[in-house]
Every structure is written in structure tokens, then in C-alpha cells.
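Backbone-to-sequence.
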């Protein structure tokens, strides 16, 4: 972590634009404390466009246009949970997932920073070691969590999860490049709620976004 901090400081000295703001690097941890985690949705790295990243995987701040991957997530929720006119996430056009986080959905990216216009700019700099340990810790210390692993990157990172203790849901990534290969129609959100309810936990209100 010291080496990572020094690297990020050097990038800033070279006038690299780093997203999100440093105050939001650990936003997922702040909004979903370890003991409150019920569902883990694992992303890769933050959005690299101005104003998009705010420390939650797949989420954007209020008022920011919904990115394509999140739009596909919304399409799947609408279909899976049979949305009507009042609940449809696609029609509401809101992309901030902080309400999910407050319900126990841990929106964790593998890499917590990026540079403007450069996807994966900070991969291999140390964040992965940190987040690998977070996933392993949750798997070992908690029981009956739901892990949603979308795409080969997330599935490889999730190999440390004990599938005997937790529900591990896998599908292609919700990106427009791959969503049609099995993400759309995966029904992960109803499966997650059924699992939580069957294990004495409160279901997630997936239609609650702001």
C-alpha cells in the first residue's frame, strides 16, 4: 500500500488526472461495512470519464448518464423481477447505486483508481493484492453471502471464494460486447433474493436507486 500510494502521488505530480477523487477511493467500504455485506458485485476498475467514478462498481453519481453496462444490468433486473411502469429502472434513467450499497450490496472494483481516458491504467500497481485479500476475508469470515461474478476477469478473481459457504453466481459481463451471450437472462437478482430469504436475511430492493 505504501508503494501504491507513492505511485499515485507520482502520477499526480506528473499531472495525471486520477479518478475518482481520493476521498471516494474507499466509498464502497464506507457505505457497506463488512458486517453489513450480503451481496458482492465485483467490477474491474472505475469508469475513466469525467464525473463518472465515485468508488462503487458499475455506479455513477446522480445526474450522470447511465453507462452501457449498467443499462444492461437494469434491463436484466427489469426482466428478472418483472418491473412495471413505476418500477422500471431503464425508464427512470438514474445510475447511482448508493441505495444498494446501504442495503448490503458491496460494490467492489478490483482496482480502485484509474486515469482519465485510460481504462485499466492502474492495473498491476497493488490494488489487486488488496482487493484479493478483501474477497478472501469475506469468504472465510462470513457465511451465506451472494457473490455475482460477471465476466472472466471477475470469475478468475473469485476463485478464492468458498462455494460451499456462499452462493456464487457467474455469467458473461454485462458489457454490450458480451451481455447477449448469457448475462441477459441470467436471473441473478431473483436468485440472490431467494437465497437471502431462504437463509433468514432480508431481500435486496433492486428497484431502489437514486
Amino acid at each position: 500500500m505504501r508503494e501504491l500510494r507513492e505511485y499515485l502521488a507520482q502520477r499526480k505530480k506528473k499531472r495525471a488526472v486520477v479518478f475518482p477523487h481520493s476521498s471516494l477511493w474507499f466509498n464502497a467500504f464506507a457505505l457497506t461495512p463488512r458486517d453489513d455485506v450480503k451481496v458482492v458485485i465485483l467490477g474491474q476498475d472505475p469508469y475513466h470519464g469525467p464525473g463518472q467514478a465515485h468508488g462503487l462498481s458499475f455506479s455513477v453519481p446522480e445526474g450522470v448518464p447511465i453507462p452501457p453496462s449498467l443499462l444492461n444490468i437494469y434491463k436484466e433486473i427489469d426482466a428478472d423481477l418483472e418491473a412495471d411502469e413505476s418500477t422500471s429502472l431503464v425508464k427512470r434513467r438514474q445510475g447511482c447505486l448508493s441505495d444498494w450499497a446501504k442495503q448490503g450490496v458491496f460494490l467492489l472494483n478490483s482496482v480502485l483508481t484509474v486515469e482519465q481516458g485510460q481504462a485499466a491504467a492502474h492495473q498491476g500497481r497493488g490494488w489487486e493484492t488488496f482487493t484479493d485479500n478483501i474477497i478472501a476475508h469475506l469468504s472465510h469470515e462470513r457465511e451465506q453471502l451472494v457473490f455475482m461474478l460477471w465476466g472472466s476477469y471477475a470469475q478468475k478473481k473469485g476463485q478464492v471464494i468458498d462455494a460451499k459457504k456462499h452462493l456464487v453466481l457467474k455469467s458473461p459481463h454485462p458489457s454490450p460486447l458480451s451481455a447477449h451471450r448469457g448475462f441477459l437472462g441470467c436471473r441473478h437478482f431473483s436468485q440472490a433474493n431467494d437465497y437471502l430469504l431462504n437463509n433468514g436475511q432480508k431481500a435486496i430492493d433492486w428497484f431502489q436507486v437514486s
